[in-house]
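Re-run requested by the PI after the first attempt was lost when the workstation crashed. Everything re-entered from the original request form. Ligand of interest: zinc ion.
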Amino acid sequence: MLSIKLIFLAVISTVVVTTYAQAQRTPNAALKSNPKVEAAHTAIHTPEDALAELREGNLRFLDGKPINTDYLDQIERTKSDQHPHSVILSCLDSRIPPEIIFDQGIGNIFVARVAGNIEDPNILGSMEFATKVKGTKLIVVMGHNKCGAVKGAVDNAELGNLTQLVDQLKPAITGDKSNPDLMLTESAKKNVELTIADILKSSPVIADLVKNDEVKIVGAFYDLSSGKVMFME
Ligand SMILES: [Zn+2]
Protein backbone atom coordinates (compact mmCIF):
# COMPACT_ATOMS: atom_id res chain seq x y z
CA MET A 1 0.00 0.00 0.00
CA LEU A 2 2.85 2.36 0.87
CA SER A 3 4.51 1.71 -2.50
CA ILE A 4 1.25 2.52 -4.38
CA LYS A 5 1.03 5.84 -2.48
CA LEU A 6 4.64 6.65 -3.38
CA ILE A 7 4.05 5.89 -7.07
CA PHE A 8 0.90 8.07 -7.02
CA LEU A 9 2.82 10.96 -5.40
CA ALA A 10 5.67 10.60 -7.90
CA VAL A 11 3.22 10.75 -10.86
CA ILE A 12 1.41 13.82 -9.45
CA SER A 13 4.74 15.58 -8.76
CA THR A 14 5.92 14.94 -12.33
CA VAL A 15 2.69 16.35 -13.80
CA VAL A 16 2.89 19.48 -11.58
CA VAL A 17 6.58 20.11 -12.33
CA THR A 18 6.09 19.57 -16.09
CA THR A 19 3.07 21.92 -16.23
CA TYR A 20 4.96 24.59 -14.27
CA ALA A 21 7.99 24.29 -16.56
CA GLN A 22 5.81 24.63 -19.69
CA ALA A 23 4.11 27.71 -18.23
CA GLN A 24 7.51 29.28 -17.58
CA ARG A 25 8.59 28.69 -21.19
CA THR A 26 5.36 29.97 -22.73
CA PRO A 27 4.81 33.69 -22.06
CA ASN A 28 1.24 33.62 -23.40
CA ALA A 29 0.23 31.28 -20.60
CA ALA A 30 0.06 34.34 -18.38
CA LEU A 31 -1.18 36.90 -20.93
CA LYS A 32 -3.81 39.37 -19.84
CA SER A 33 -5.65 41.21 -22.59
CA ASN A 34 -5.48 44.98 -22.07
CA PRO A 35 -8.47 46.73 -23.76
CA LYS A 36 -6.54 50.04 -23.93
CA VAL A 37 -3.65 48.35 -25.77
CA GLU A 38 -6.07 46.55 -28.11
CA ALA A 39 -7.92 49.81 -28.86
CA ALA A 40 -4.73 51.78 -29.55
CA HIS A 41 -3.36 49.00 -31.78
CA THR A 42 -6.45 48.57 -33.95
CA ALA A 43 -7.29 52.29 -34.31
CA ILE A 44 -4.25 53.32 -36.38
CA HIS A 45 -5.04 53.45 -40.11
CA THR A 46 -3.81 56.88 -41.24
CA PRO A 47 -0.78 59.16 -40.69
CA GLU A 48 -3.02 61.34 -38.48
CA ASP A 49 -3.96 58.30 -36.36
CA ALA A 50 -0.26 57.50 -35.89
CA LEU A 51 0.55 61.09 -34.94
CA ALA A 52 -2.35 61.16 -32.46
CA GLU A 53 -1.09 57.92 -30.86
CA LEU A 54 2.43 59.38 -30.44
CA ARG A 55 0.99 62.56 -28.87
CA GLU A 56 -1.16 60.49 -26.50
CA GLY A 57 1.74 58.13 -25.78
CA ASN A 58 3.97 61.04 -24.70
CA LEU A 59 1.15 62.32 -22.46
CA ARG A 60 0.79 58.85 -20.88
CA PHE A 61 4.57 58.82 -20.31
CA LEU A 62 4.47 62.29 -18.71
CA ASP A 63 1.50 61.28 -16.53
CA GLY A 64 3.33 58.15 -15.37
CA LYS A 65 0.50 56.01 -16.79
CA PRO A 66 2.05 53.96 -19.61
CA ILE A 67 -0.01 51.11 -21.09
CA ASN A 68 2.58 49.45 -23.36
CA THR A 69 4.74 47.89 -20.66
CA ASP A 70 3.74 44.22 -20.86
CA TYR A 71 6.76 43.29 -22.96
CA LEU A 72 6.15 39.53 -22.87
CA ASP A 73 2.65 40.16 -24.22
CA GLN A 74 4.09 42.39 -26.96
CA ILE A 75 6.66 39.71 -27.87
CA GLU A 76 3.85 37.17 -28.19
CA ARG A 77 1.75 39.51 -30.36
CA THR A 78 4.62 40.34 -32.72
CA LYS A 79 6.52 37.05 -32.89
CA SER A 80 5.32 36.25 -36.45
CA ASP A 81 5.30 39.70 -38.03
CA GLN A 82 5.46 43.43 -37.34
CA HIS A 83 3.35 46.38 -38.46
CA PRO A 84 4.75 49.47 -36.70
CA HIS A 85 2.69 52.62 -37.30
CA SER A 86 5.64 55.08 -37.25
CA VAL A 87 9.35 55.31 -37.95
CA ILE A 88 11.32 57.69 -35.77
CA LEU A 89 14.76 59.13 -36.54
CA SER A 90 16.20 60.30 -33.23
CA CYS A 91 19.53 61.25 -31.68
CA LEU A 92 21.97 58.76 -30.14
CA ASP A 93 21.53 60.59 -26.80
CA SER A 94 20.88 58.02 -24.06
CA ARG A 95 18.18 60.20 -22.48
CA ILE A 96 15.80 59.91 -25.44
CA PRO A 97 14.57 56.32 -25.95
CA PRO A 98 11.59 56.77 -28.33
CA GLU A 99 9.93 53.49 -27.28
CA ILE A 100 9.72 54.81 -23.70
CA ILE A 101 8.98 58.53 -24.17
CA PHE A 102 6.14 57.70 -26.59
CA ASP A 103 4.96 54.72 -24.48
CA GLN A 104 5.16 52.31 -27.44
CA GLY A 105 7.18 49.38 -26.05
CA ILE A 106 7.99 46.52 -28.43
CA GLY A 107 6.72 46.27 -32.03
CA ASN A 108 4.85 49.57 -32.45
CA ILE A 109 7.56 51.87 -33.88
CA PHE A 110 10.67 51.55 -36.02
CA VAL A 111 13.54 53.56 -34.50
CA ALA A 112 16.71 54.79 -36.21
CA ARG A 113 19.20 56.58 -33.98
CA VAL A 114 22.36 58.45 -34.86
CA ALA A 115 24.11 61.39 -33.19
CA GLY A 116 22.44 64.56 -34.50
CA ASN A 117 19.47 62.65 -36.04
CA ILE A 118 20.63 63.11 -39.64
CA GLU A 119 19.78 60.93 -42.61
CA ASP A 120 22.18 58.99 -44.83
CA PRO A 121 21.59 56.31 -47.51
CA ASN A 122 21.32 53.57 -44.84
CA ILE A 123 18.72 55.52 -42.87
CA LEU A 124 16.83 56.35 -46.09
CA GLY A 125 16.82 52.67 -47.10
CA SER A 126 15.50 51.76 -43.67
CA MET A 127 12.74 54.38 -43.93
CA GLU A 128 11.81 53.13 -47.41
CA PHE A 129 11.53 49.58 -46.02
CA ALA A 130 9.37 50.85 -43.14
CA THR A 131 6.98 52.88 -45.30
CA LYS A 132 6.85 51.10 -48.67
CA VAL A 133 7.29 47.49 -47.53
CA LYS A 134 5.74 47.48 -44.04
CA GLY A 135 3.12 50.20 -44.52
CA THR A 136 4.32 52.54 -41.78
CA LYS A 137 2.22 55.72 -41.89
CA LEU A 138 4.35 58.35 -40.21
CA ILE A 139 7.99 59.48 -40.30
CA VAL A 140 9.17 61.58 -37.35
CA VAL A 141 12.54 63.36 -37.29
CA MET A 142 13.16 64.25 -33.65
CA GLY A 143 15.81 66.65 -32.37
CA HIS A 144 16.34 67.83 -28.81
CA ASN A 145 17.73 70.66 -26.73
CA LYS A 146 21.32 70.60 -25.42
CA CYS A 147 22.33 68.21 -28.23
CA GLY A 148 26.00 67.21 -27.94
CA ALA A 149 26.28 66.56 -31.68
CA VAL A 150 25.00 70.05 -32.55
CA LYS A 151 27.35 71.51 -29.95
CA GLY A 152 30.18 69.54 -31.59
CA ALA A 153 29.31 71.20 -34.92
CA VAL A 154 29.30 74.66 -33.31
CA ASP A 155 32.64 73.96 -31.59
CA ASN A 156 34.24 72.35 -34.68
CA ALA A 157 34.85 69.09 -32.81
CA GLU A 158 37.44 66.80 -34.37
CA LEU A 159 37.74 63.09 -33.55
CA GLY A 160 38.08 60.19 -35.95
CA ASN A 161 34.86 59.62 -37.87
CA LEU A 162 33.00 62.06 -35.62
CA THR A 163 34.59 64.96 -37.56
CA GLN A 164 32.70 64.15 -40.76
CA LEU A 165 29.50 63.53 -38.77
CA VAL A 166 29.46 66.96 -37.11
CA ASP A 167 30.45 68.56 -40.45
CA GLN A 168 27.09 67.35 -41.79
CA LEU A 169 25.34 69.35 -39.04
CA LYS A 170 27.11 72.64 -39.80
CA PRO A 171 24.57 73.92 -42.39
CA ALA A 172 22.02 73.95 -39.55
CA ILE A 173 24.01 76.24 -37.27
CA THR A 174 22.04 79.40 -36.68
CA GLY A 175 21.37 81.99 -33.98
CA ASP A 176 23.37 84.28 -31.73
CA LYS A 177 26.58 82.83 -30.24
CA SER A 178 26.24 85.13 -27.19
CA ASN A 179 23.31 82.95 -26.02
CA PRO A 180 24.75 79.41 -26.36
CA ASP A 181 21.70 77.48 -25.04
CA LEU A 182 19.27 79.31 -27.32
CA MET A 183 21.67 78.96 -30.22
CA LEU A 184 21.90 75.19 -29.71
CA THR A 185 18.11 74.91 -29.56
CA GLU A 186 17.58 77.01 -32.69
CA SER A 187 20.29 75.08 -34.55
CA ALA A 188 18.86 71.70 -33.49
CA LYS A 189 15.42 72.76 -34.73
CA LYS A 190 16.91 73.98 -38.00
CA ASN A 191 18.69 70.62 -38.30
CA VAL A 192 15.33 68.82 -38.06
CA GLU A 193 13.92 71.00 -40.85
CA LEU A 194 16.97 70.42 -43.08
CA THR A 195 16.92 66.66 -42.41
CA ILE A 196 13.26 66.45 -43.47
CA ALA A 197 14.03 68.43 -46.63
CA ASP A 198 17.01 66.15 -47.38
CA ILE A 199 14.89 63.00 -46.88
CA LEU A 200 12.28 64.24 -49.37
CA LYS A 201 14.98 65.34 -51.83
CA SER A 202 17.04 62.13 -51.61
CA SER A 203 14.25 59.55 -51.54
CA PRO A 204 11.77 59.66 -54.44
CA VAL A 205 10.11 56.60 -52.84
CA ILE A 206 9.26 58.54 -49.67
CA ALA A 207 8.52 61.78 -51.54
CA ASP A 208 5.88 59.94 -53.64
CA LEU A 209 4.24 58.39 -50.57
CA VAL A 210 4.10 61.82 -48.89
CA LYS A 211 2.75 63.47 -52.07
CA ASN A 212 -0.02 60.86 -52.25
CA ASP A 213 -0.94 61.42 -48.56
CA GLU A 214 -0.09 57.78 -47.77
CA VAL A 215 2.71 58.86 -45.44
CA LYS A 216 3.23 62.01 -43.39
CA ILE A 217 6.65 63.34 -42.33
CA VAL A 218 6.89 65.66 -39.32
CA GLY A 219 9.53 67.21 -37.12
CA ALA A 220 9.55 66.88 -33.35
CA PHE A 221 11.58 68.40 -30.55
CA TYR A 222 12.25 66.72 -27.19
CA ASP A 223 12.90 68.67 -24.00
CA LEU A 224 15.47 66.85 -21.83
CA SER A 225 14.30 68.69 -18.69
CA SER A 226 10.61 67.78 -18.87
CA GLY A 227 10.30 64.69 -21.09
CA LYS A 228 7.85 66.58 -23.27
CA VAL A 229 7.74 66.19 -27.07
CA MET A 230 6.68 69.17 -29.18
CA PHE A 231 5.63 68.38 -32.75
CA MET A 232 6.79 70.99 -35.27
CA GLU A 233 3.73 71.34 -37.49
ZN1 LIG B 1 21.68 64.85 -29.55
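Saved to the shared folder this time. The CA atoms of residues 156 and 169 lie 10 Å apart.
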